[in-house]
Amino acid sequence: MASTSTSPPLKKSRTYSYTFRDEWEEQYFFTSFKGKAICLICQASVSVGKKCNLERHFNTVHKSYDIDYPTNSNLRRARVKELKTALSAQQSIFKKTVSHSKAATVASLKVAHILAKKKKPFEDGGIVKEAMLATADSLFQDFNNYSQIIAAIKDVQLSGNTVVRRIEVMSEDVDLQLRSDLEKCDFMSLQFDESTDIEDTAQLSIFIRMVFEDSSVKEDILAVLPLMGKTRGEDIYQAFKMFIKDINMPLQKLVAVTDGAPAMVGRNIGFVALCRRDPDFPEFRSYHCIIHQQSLCSKVLNYQHVMTVVLKIVNSIRARSLQNRLFKSLLDEMDAQYGFLLFHTGVRWLSRGKVLQRFLDLLPEIIVFLEGRGEQVEQLSNPKWLSDLAFLNDLTSKLNALNLELQRQDKTITELIGSVNAFKVKLNLWMTQMEKGILTHFPSLEKLVRESAVYEKDMYAEHLDLIRKDFEKSFSDFMIIEPVATFITNPFMETDVTDTASQIANAFRLSIPDLEMEIITLQADLHLKARSSHTEIWAMVQKSKYPLLKQSSQCLLACFGSTYLCESGFFTMKILKSKYRSRLTNTHLNDCMKLAVTHYTPNFDKLAENMKCQVSH
User: At 131, is the pLDDT very low, low, confident or very high (cuts 50, 70, 90)?
Assistant: First the structure.
């Protein structure tokens, strides 16, 4: 029979804890601090605070104390008290030093945060410190603690390199807060747009809109990604795919994508098309920016015969310094409404309308100035051309008003659709009135008609109809979701349940029969109907009772309608990375953009606790 060997049982590791006794203070000159036994004489600590260790240390290192300070004597007790007081004072100084260093670090973080918010260079931290010292020298000179105030300001770390490090850690902290909200939100949508910086590096701006269980919404910047090579749809797709893998983004919550770049909308190799073919992406809706589409609609009118003359005259005056000075002098002499003409910039949405309005307002002064130069521009005396100028000015001013109405943060897709629909109705009204010769809504044209009585009302009505048709065509994607938005805005309105359920199901890929039952139950819910006037009605709707309708309202609320945040972000980027800061790296541009645009506030105290706080040298 074979013998079997058994291994000895493993010994259990034990953790002992020893309670410090008060009598050991006088007996061995030890005290307890934060669970450690510390010698009052030499401030040494023993590894295990048990009696034998304390006794061994005292008898080995401080044996003479038994002779100088006899046991149970008043002299020994007084010496113990004296040593404890000295140790407490030492610890107090250390705590004060650490606390002061932390306060200086927190102040440094806050100043760096202000610099980032105001889009200022890193080196401006030194200017802030210099200004603080100059201010303190004037305000606190007569204070008793003047020297302490100056010393505290000098301790704040605000060198250029320090500000860079502060911005890096604050950007990371803000990013962590955003990722935490990403995990908590129910649905989200993204908006993308691309622009080049001062160094011709293409920067992809990404903003996110998150909707939470209580129907609250947060919009914030997600990232600014550099595109070092080409900016095709596949390049944008690869950069974004790499980014979402790095942050482990919960893509299953994505419901919509809004784009502003031409590379986004390709049918086969556009960014959106590539995302739809990627199995990692869920089914989502996609929209081209509503502001971009409105801007494109405004360019369908072929009024080059007006714009060519206007721009030629404006450039002949503004592009030459002498002519510009002479024209300004003339405007001052004639007490004109404005002091100068405006340049036209094709990439700016509102530029054409503003240039035309300024040109028309200064038309008498322009004619006088050109005559003074011996120039005759026959169009300026042609009633037909002038009526075209007035009509184009009135129409572009209305398009500019719509554009400004669409440009706003935290504006829902429902509000944007409402603004576009209202403008289409206005176009019908203006077209009808134009055919009848009513020019109430075209004040510039009406004024010129009273003076010259020359205008082609049928042609202008046709142009209005052309814009209306282009609006119908360009905004067809938004019209699909309009019935859903109408119901979500007012769920207790009279509606065809089957049609409404079908429209919601088509928009968000949901079950029609289940939606029909939920709509009927919701509209019969007396408790909710009593609160139907409440603006946050869907925050009161229970997800457990109406899961599909709640999901539909949240998905609609999550949708961006425009890339306004990206466009305003590019304005921030142009300030941050200007010709004076062209060496700003892509990483630091991303960090500065986040702090300048984000609604999150860095946790200054927590960041300071995780740093080695040292005062400025």
Answer: very high
Residue 152 is which amino acid?
A
Cite the beta strand spans of 200-318 per DSSP E: 202-211, 217-227, 254-259, 285-288
Whole-angstrom CA distances from 424 to 254, 413, 464 are: 31, 17, 10
Residue 478, CA distances (Å) to 297, 379, 401 in order: 15, 41, 20
Domain boundaries, the chain: 23-93, 94-286+563-617, 297-474, 477-558
The CA distance from 591 to 575, in Å, is: 14
48 sits in which H/E element: none
CB atoms within 10 A of CB 573: 25
Q: What is the pLDDT of residues 576-606, one digit of tens each?
A: 999 999 999 999 999 999 999 999 999 998 9
Backbone angles phi, psi at 410, to 5 degrees: 65, 25
**What is the pLDDT averaged over residues 559-575?**
89
Please give the Cα distance from 443 to 450 (Å, whole number): 11
Q: Write down the pLDDT at residue 596.
A: 95
The label of the residue with tokens 């629909």 reads 421
d(CA 515, CA 483): 15
Q: Strand pairing of 202-211 and 187-196?
A: antiparallel
Supply the angle between the helices 383-406 and 443-452 in degrees, to the nearest 10.
170
pLDDT-derived band at 186 (thresholds 50, 70, 90) equals very high
Residue type (1 letter), 146: Y
DSSP 3-state assignment of 154? helix
- Asked whether the beta carbons of 478 and 420 are under 8 A apart, the reply is yes
Q: Report, in angstroms and rounded to the nearest whole number, the Rg of the chain calculated over CA atoms.
A: 36
